[in-house]
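Consider this:
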Amino acid sequence: MPVSKAIGQAAAELGIEAHVLRHWERIGVLAVRRSANGYRSYDDEALERARTVLRLRRVGLSLPEVAAAMAPTRSVAQAVVQAKITSLQQEIIRRKQAIVFLQHTLDCRHRYLDDCPDCVTFVREA
């Protein structure tokens, strides 16, 4: 017989606060059964879905993106995930450019960044 957990137990197992689980349920990314007395009851399926939400949040998806990524329509889910991949790839490019610029400022022979043509070019392109 499957074992169900109360919200506090489920939250502790997931390493999050109970109010987070309530919020996820309220916005529709998590469906949880209720016991006869109205308490939330987290079975294995609900816990696995919560773990999926948590993983998606940890890789940077917003809650609306999580909801779309968990949509029953595969094409909708794939579009959201592809958009996040593209966004992350663009962020990686921006961060690498920032590192190049900052490294240049460490090595720059000019006293002020405004005096350096390379620094000025980077600022204009950013």
About this structure: Strands lie at 33-34, 40-41. The chain has two domains: 1-60, 71-126. DSSP finds six helices and two strands in the chain. The two ends are 59 Å apart (CA to CA).
